[in-house]
Amino acid sequence: MTDSSPTEPRRWKDKPPPARAWKGRPGLDRAARSAEQDRAAGGRDRRLVDLGKGRTALASVELKVFPQTRRIRAYLRWSDKGKSPVKYLGEVSEESRLQNLALAWQMAFEQQLFIVPEDSNESWASSPAVRAIMKANRSRDTKSELALRSATHKLGLRYRVDTPPIKELRRRADLVFPRARVAVFSDGCYWHGCPDHHRAARKNQEFWDEKITKNQERDRDTDAKLTAAGWLVIRVWEHEDATEAAARIADAVRDRRDQPAE
Length: 262
Description:
By secondary structure, the protein is α+β, with helices and mostly antiparallel strands. It has 2 domains: 19-124, no CATH class; 143-258, VSR Endonuclease (Endonuclease, Chain A). It contains 6 helices and 9 strands; from the N terminus they run αβββββαααβββαβα. A 4-stranded mixed sheet has the order 6-7-8-9, with helices on both faces. α1 (30-41) packs across α2 and α4 packs across α6.
């Protein structure tokens, strides 16, 4: 599972976010604003939305502040035949506008909303292998996640999909077994820092390394909080065999269901 919608504690609790975190500098012309988007996205060629049938459009990220909730939300906009489609990307909470724009673009890349040029010198991945991993990444319903669901279902287990195991923790697990209190996370090898398959990005390495580290810290925090609440957490790497992982999940679920109630 990926981090397309951050749920970390809000940075601003007592007052709305400062203008520097979301509002563009006054007086910037169209070219300057477009250059700002290029910088945040990692290059103009990374801003192309696939409209189908060979058509593309240049997209931009818009940041909106909601004073009452003290949150900044990011939206993706582009033009298509006189219309202006808008897609909500998620909440951002960095201290500067550029950081929030970069984070929003990352969310958009994770959701596979863009064409990534295979031969571009500004490619967002360091190699074809890493690029394939990144392009295959979605916020949910990934290939590995669907395979894991199917294999688990074949073993006669029923579960909830993409839901928070406990209401107090606003973090979603990929498969949830409420009765047994088992939460399963299908972790992408790149975004969660798989020790076997993760390879550091060559471009913007500091930014991406920090993101991966934050994801790992969030994973550990999620595990600790669910464990403290009496849940068993199972994490399955996307490279693992789905059938073998499903058998491990089934054993754990059935074992906990058979345990006498305390």
